[in-house]
Amino acid sequence: MTKKCIISVLLVVAWAFFASLFYKTIMLMLLFLVWKKHIFEMLPPWAKKWGIRPYWMLFFVCLWMAMPRYLIDSSDRVRLVYLDKNGDTKHPPLTQYLINTLIPEEEIVNFGIRNLMIARPVISMMGVGGTLIAQANQDIANGKIHNFFTPYDNLGKDNPMSGIYVQVFNEVFRTNDRAVYICEPKGDENVRWSKENGFKYPLVVFCHGYLGNWQLYQGIWKDLDNSIVLSIGTRSMNGIFTNRDINEIFSYYIPSLERMGYHIDHRQIHLMGLSNGGSAVIAAMHSSHAKDFKSFTSVSCNLEGLRKVPCSVNLIGGGEDNSSLLMPSQASRLSKMGVHTGLYFVPEENHYVLVNRRNEIIELIKQEMNLTCVRE
């Protein structure tokens, strides 16, 4: 009995440490296995004839629900979709799927955040500067650690694969796969979302920063209710986008979405870049496609080579972030050029303003972009 109690305590501690539903379910299954004889003895007589098989079945159903979706066309609002060279959907490589299942992105974040000092040498080797690590430590010390996990909770029953694994495989094993996140509109009491509801929807294209196309961001963009959010990625995890990527939005990604049955309002195409992903905004501002966007939004990234563009520009950053310090002056310069400019600048915030102020930022984006579905 003492041995069982010690094992049970360890399993409960492990359950509390893990962040993902997948591993929390496994810990409960192991705890159930330790005490299954005692649990069976406590069952009422009418339930004993069924044995404990129904409970195992329930656990395995929960485990299956906790696994990332392998189906090409799942019913989730947020999905990671693999695309072939023509932009048609395909199943993810089985190896990537299995690794994604066994090492959920949420657990990587959980371990990295909770053991930042242990993980620091590895993170530094990946090119993340000491300032960013120090800012993360400061946020944790100030009680903001939950901000890094809330987006995962916000995904709810949606359980897409992580977009970083395809990039890791491309970078390390020289594969050539491509995957994007698609977040479908939520719909409301006036217009219920479906691909065939007779409405065209705004398209918001999100470009990630350094370290890849994280699932975490989708838990934030899911609250952009009345639009289709497409999160594209660089081949590797560097988050440096070029003019080629901007061209592919119109020649590759949008045609791909339309073949999937999405109806896009081409007058409402918006581009967002986070940190290194701000390179996409810079490239688009100097691209022939600048006229095809309704707005540009840069988060935690100063913009280089400012010029007058035929759309609005939103700048979002924090005063403690070197990557955002120029935003107030850049907003002033853009306004003098005649560009409608929105500025959300919080002096006490750092590079992680997106996770720390996600609700305010979502409301600002909704207001500035004026995301509205229109009847076809």
From TrEMBL:
Keywords: Membrane, Transmembrane, Transmembrane helix. The chain crosses the membrane at residues 7-35, 55-72. This is Alpha/beta hydrolase.
